[in-house]
Amino acid sequence: MIALLKRDLRLAIRAGGGFGLGVAFFLILCALVPFGVGPDTSALQPIAAGILWLGALLACLLSLDRIFALDHEDGSLDLLATSPLPLEGAVAVKALAHWITTGLPLIVAAPLFGILLHLPTAAIPSLLTSLLLGTPALSMLGAFGAAVTVGLRRGGLLLSLLVLPLYIPTLIFGTEMIRRGQEGGATATPLLFLAGITAGVLALVPFAAAAALRVNLR
Amino acid sequence: MSIWEYANPVKFMRTSGAVLPWVVAGAAVCTVTGLVWGFSTPDDYRQGSTVKIVFLHVPAAMMAINIWVMMLVTSLIWLIRRHHVSALAAKAAAPIGAVMTVIGLITGAVWGQPMWGTWWEWDPRLTSFLILLLFYIGYIALWSAVEDPDSAADLTGVLCLVGSVFALLSRYAVFFWNQGLHQGASLSVQSGERMSAVYRYPLYLTMLGFGLLFLSLLLVRTRTEIRRRRLAALQAREMRA
């Protein structure tokens, strides 16, 4: 499993832009929003949490199809499926690699982009915690969507149609947590919900994704 | 005699062909009578004549949810017991469910404009219905995107399972996010919360009518799917010969 993780990370880095592209997209989004809604603090501050979460979500979505597509093309996915490692484990490792290459850089960059959007510094701890708890679920659900659409020629658009509705609960609790952190309220409830969703997703979705992969490799 | 006998397409075709005219007639009678009866009820003292949209709104909304549950059950049957009729029934049900969801949303908007003063409000019930519509669209899109019918049935079955969990999760998550305008349950067993009998009985009739309407559409569509599958099999046999 660790070998697979290392391999995926190495591929992501050497293929170029594995770490950088998601963050660059995130930066562009955060730079475009003020052009859309105006540069005033009063306009930006209330929507900053939502924009940051939406940006993380979309940046994550953009790189999803690469989780399985390349391995499917060159046949290494078939080797993975026949290897002694259970396919569920392989899916989980690939989702983890996706999270390390897209989720983690986003989390590191998020406070900086929060400042761009006039997010109050008081909200930054809750921003970091919510992203740290929420983005693993995004990667795992994305791996499920990628597994379902891996054999399709025009899977990209379908992938976003399938995956985005699954992101709704995470998005709701993630932004709610930042909003409460911004107002200095108690963040425990959304935090627990967010952690619960992520834990449930990490425990159960690998099985669904592996089932979908087996169908596609048949 | 068990329900699994109907997993045999021949048996299913024969029985459904015999039952279909009766179901269609029942759906037509119940829906038309219920709607005419419903629309001829007196105006509500506060809502005026707009109250009558309930006879379309509530049955459609009810069916939108029930159809998803039915798809979940048939998907499970397909994934566990591999009965093709079950998978085809789930495929046939999805567009009907999507249309029911749209009817529910549109009639709600038409009623909400005079009553709440807005066509749309990000109310938990409305939002969860919109999310349900997104799940229906994704499900239908996946069916049409995968070419091999068995793989498509498998993938959509898995999607239906995951989607059900998340549709339910979203339904309760949106309560957390926004408190609503929408009233609670329209029908309740507690007599104090029930709507007046004048409206209730036509509503029961239209609900029954919409249920039968769904059943007849479902049977027609499933029969079409089975015939299409047979045609494809015949063509494949001819190609091989």
Could you characterize what this model shows?
The complex is a heterodimer of chains A (218) and B (241). With 218 residues, chain A is an all-alpha fold. Chain A has one domain (2-217). Helix content of chain A is 81%, strand content 0%. Chain A is built from ten helices and no strands. Chain A has helices spanning 2-14, 20-37, 41-62, 69-74, 76-82, 87-116, 124-149, 155-163, 168-182, 188-217. Chain A is elongated. Chain A starts with a helix and ends with a helix. Chain B is built from six helices and no strands. Chain B has one domain. By secondary structure, chain B is an all-alpha fold. Chain B starts with 8 loop residues before the first helix and ends with a helix. The mean pLDDT of chain B is 86. Chain B has helices at residues 9-39, 54-81, 84-116, 124-145, 149-177, 197-240. Classes of the chains: A mainly alpha (218), B mainly alpha (241).
Helices and strands, with pairings:
The complex is a heterodimer of chains A (218) and B (241).
Chain A: H1 2-14, H2 20-37, H3 41-62, H4 69-74, H5 76-82, H6 87-116, H7 124-149, H8 155-163, H9 168-182, H10 188-217
Helix pairs in contact in A: 1-6, 2-3, 2-6, 3-6, 3-7, 3-9, 6-7, 6-10, 7-8, 7-9, 7-10, 9-10
Chain B: H1 9-39, H2 54-81, H3 84-116, H4 124-145, H5 149-177, H6 197-240
